[in-house]
Design brief:
- It is a single chain.
- Helices cover 48% and strands 13% of the residues.
- By secondary structure, it is an alpha+beta fold.
- The strands form four sheets. Strands 1-4 form a two-stranded antiparallel sheet.
- It has one domain: Cytochrome p450, CATH 1.10.630.10.
- The longest helix is centred in the N-terminal third of the chain and has 33 residues.
Amino acid sequence: MSDTIMRSMDAGLDPAAAEPGRQARLELNALVESWYEASDRPGVLSHVRLHAERSALPDLDLYVRNTARVMFQGGYSTMVAAIGNVVHTLLRHPGWLARMRDPRLLRTGIDELIRYDGPVQGTSRIATTATRIGDAPVEAGDTVLVLFAAANRDPDQFAEPDRLIIDRASASRHLGYGWGPHSCLGAVTAQLALRALVAGLDQHTSGLHLAGIPRRRRTATIRVFEALPASFRAR
């Protein structure tokens, strides 16, 4: 289901992926709805449902349900992609793992890893009013494609953008999680998970190295591995 939805994000390039993606979203929506309606035990869904029911804001329940669907879909596919990209980059820069034992470098290093090779390459937005982006006119109703990956290699924002710099002071300005009021709902969770991943690899493995040729999935919106063969010794 998740893979089908992920591939449908590229429907502009592969129209045949659109309908399977729509069906997979309907299936996911029904699944999350069943969890939401039955969320009588302590947990995330019961917590947000309780607060939505108590709120006087109009239509809040609809927004909460939609956010729950996004949380389950995005929390899986993008996290899998981020983990693969981070591990691949660490495999290519073996000295980084030991250096990131320093808590300060762990914080900046995670931001730099996402800036350098983040999971989400871009998104699209529909303009609600006429505006301009640089010299380009944008009319109301136009679709604007925002390329996060290109912005994260902007030399005006990041000196030597194609270099991986573990203590890059500006790394936290990356757009790997979006920006502003519509930034990624799971950004904090992703940061914590990736810090735990790096710390765990350092503390509980040795001899981590590539054990074959990595293979990328042929998707444009989400940058993810189909296979990332690696070898290590547990300790």
